[in-house]
Amino acid sequence: MASYSPLLLCTLLILLIFSAAAAAVSPAIADSCTAGSPTENSTPLVSFLQRVQSAARASANPKSFDPKSYVDLPLKHDLKVTESAFDDLPRVPGAAVHGVVPYFYMREFLKKYFGKPGDDLVYVEPKDYSPEPEGFLPKVKNHKVRVWALEVHSLWKNLSRRVSDDVKERPDRHTLLPLPEPVIIPGSRFKEVYYWDSYWIVRGLLVSKMYDTAKSIVSNLLWLVDTYGHPLNGARVYYTNRSQPPLLSSMVMEIYTKTGDLEFVKKSLPALLKEHSFWTSGVHKVMIRDLQGRKHSLSRYYAKWNSPRPESATIDEDSASSLPSPDDKKVFYREVASAAETGWDFSSRWMRNSSVITTLSTTLIIPVDLNAYLYKVELDIAFFAKKLGHRHTYENYLKSSKARQSAMRSILWNKEMNQWLDYWLNSDDCQDVHQFEAKNQNANIYVSNFIPMWNWKHASGEDEDRSPILRSFEVSGLIQPAGISTSLLNSGQQWDLPNGWAPLQHMIIEGLSNSGSETGSLLAEKIAVSWIRTNYAAYKTTGAMHEKYNVESCGKVGGGGEYVPQTGFGWSNGVLLALLEEYGWPSEKEIGCH
Ligand SMILES: *[C@@H]1O[C@H](CO)[C@@H](O)[C@H](O)[C@H]1NC(C)=O
Ligand SMILES: *[C@@H]1O[C@H](CO)[C@@H](O)[C@H](O)[C@H]1NC(C)=O
Ligand SMILES: *[C@@H]1O[C@H](CO)[C@@H](O)[C@H](O)[C@H]1NC(C)=O
């Protein structure tokens, strides 16, 4: 007994609690087989704000209507008071179920009873910010690039907030969650913390030597895990039933690598174990038998939600209007919320027919990237456990990582194409163990087919020949003049051609540069340089960093999707700073498109 540390006991306890929880949720697996699974209600506040959203759309100018801004409204009075004022508004006959509130009354009501979206976060000066940190980007020698990099660095101040006292005192009047520490938001309409965005924000903060701010971002996510059992899609009440790509362990790893702070690792480990259980049990776990009869366990995205996404409810209801039955609508709503959980909302990748949104089938897909991230989570946990002297945890997670690697080889790897492919389950989803069929691999080209390269930094390459993968990537068509495209299909969705997203550039660049081959390193640098150029050119013409770029030509920003393109922008800033730290910019090299 003496050899067990308190933390190990704690870990065991968490694992025990979790296996109990996993047993308790197993009926939910059957849930995915039956269209008529129960609709759970949102909180009373979210339901009410959705009614306001819907009424506002009926009375407002549809062109500038953003449904999210209504569920983000902070209440000035109690819900009861606000609700009865809303119910008392005059209504005239119209398309809406209860009649249309004339625009004038709606505007007055919004003004009188609500603060502005975003009021519940207040500006806070980051304590560890300095205008030019010591040792900042030593390899950036070019004057123009340096000035620009310092401007982007200064944007951390613009994006820095803390939760207002009113949210802590009256949480029932806010959909914003009372995160304990200061935050960095992505920007524009995204006024709250997002999960996977935070990884690249942390990467940038580390370049900016803002170690405390980076740690506070992770501490907030740990708080979410403590409170809800997993990191949420974002820090709003209406995001409680979905997560996002699991990159918390990667944030802890980056911070540990830069600071050597083992106490911080110790504090984080229980949450990492909890998150791992979340993705490897219940509805997220998929068992599949390969052609040799070996059983494997992989993971999928699956939001526990079968109503319209509150932040886009009017859009989802419109999309679902073509579906015949309430049960079909519920299934569709789950697929939409699950697509939001993937971080790629939306993409032809999750659709049976790329022009029909109701063919979203997210929960029937075993995604390459999710499993690559979880493989890294397992390696990260093993690494931390070893550092902390938790031998059993170390051995268990190393074993899990090997099992996942072999599952990915058997189910997701395609040896003709030399890339990993998403696997589509047969729509009959009620089997305990699925049977692998080669035809169910999705042979369309997405960046995600190459995301496992990101793990080349951490995993030894003994068991794979990387050069065919590099060649396959080079000829994939994904490499465009201004970066890497998300896919080869222009569907009008934002996670498709011609959009390139900073996080995807960065993971691929890091993968290539750790390939151990000269070809890979050169390609990585070439892509990094074209991405830096396009960021610079767009910054000069628009004065902002963008959430996505059009990679078909240098200097163009992205479009498509369900909302207007956003600026700010957390992860783009983070990736730019990380790339400039890695590759630098010589003084004589011109910047901008050429
Ligand atoms: C969200 O998940 C929790 C816990 O699994 C569940 O109790 C609740 O009903 C879910 N909410 C919705 C709206 O589905
Ligand atoms: C950043 O904040 C400063 C000070 O509030 C403001 O002047 C500047 O316009 C902001 N820049 C951007 C890009 O938002
Ligand atoms: C996709 O849907 C469109 C619109 O309904 C239809 O015209 C097209 O034939 C469908 N494509 C496939 C491959 O089914």
From TrEMBL:
<keyword id="KW-0732">Signal</keyword>
<feature type="signal peptide">
    <location>
        <begin position="1"/>
        <end position="24"/>
    </location>
</feature>
<protein>
    <recommendedName>
        <fullName>Trehalase</fullName>
        <ecNumber>3.2.1.28</ecNumber>
    </recommendedName>
</protein>
<dbReference type="InterPro" id="IPR001661">
    <property type="entry name" value="Glyco_hydro_37"/>
</dbReference>
<keyword id="KW-0378">Hydrolase</keyword>
<comment type="similarity">
    <text>Belongs to the glycosyl hydrolase 37 family.</text>
</comment>
<dbReference type="InterPro" id="IPR012341">
    <property type="entry name" value="6hp_glycosidase-like_sf"/>
</dbReference>
<dbReference type="GO" id="GO:0004555">
    <property type="term" value="F:alpha,alpha-trehalase activity"/>
</dbReference>
<dbReference type="InterPro" id="IPR018232">
    <property type="entry name" value="Glyco_hydro_37_CS"/>
</dbReference>
<keyword id="KW-0326">Glycosidase</keyword>
<dbReference type="Pfam" id="PF01204">
    <property type="entry name" value="Trehalase"/>
</dbReference>
<dbReference type="InterPro" id="IPR008928">
    <property type="entry name" value="6-hairpin_glycosidase_sf"/>
</dbReference>
<dbReference type="GO" id="GO:0005993">
    <property type="term" value="P:trehalose catabolic process"/>
</dbReference>
